[in-house]
Give the backbone structure.
Amino acid sequence: MRVITLSRQFGSGGSEIAKAVSDKLGIKYVDKSIVAEAAASSGIAKEHFEKADERRTNSFLFSLAAAHYGGSAAPVQLNDIITDDKLFIHTADAIKRLSGEPCIIVGRCADDILSDRKILRVYVYASMESRIARISKLYDLGEKAAATLIKKTDKKRANYYNFYTSKTWGDAQNYDLCINSDLLGTDGTAELICSFARTCENISK
């Protein structure tokens, strides 16, 4: 399987699992590099992509504030306004370029953007209890603050995905494999994804 896309609930360990899959299969790990690639190819400052990464700002004020690619003091022109949609188009183009070689891509609607290709679409989820424990430790937060951050982050990711794909984030029908990472842990979940990918590849030959 040349390309694997991995969507994940916040706190489920999805990024760590994707890195483990990358190591086990010897394929490229693609996550934050999407932002860097989109910024480099578009000429738009990287921080604008970071602010809109997997979220919709829905703010015209944000668009005006981001209107100058290089911080120019020139008057803002309508075509220069950096909208969420413009950032998404550049992000999608970056994903298509980065998927030119075997890789695992984390989030950012990659499963839908690459729907015309042969890919393996994975969704990783976990119990709220384990997610709270992970985020509390990772960000040094109390349980209540961790739960709030999890809910807000998941909501942002869902809004972003639902808007740009016209699908429902987390709906099993959108994926080929949905895994509860609580059951096998990071390494076990990664190994299951690798095994599933190898089986799919063998069947398709």
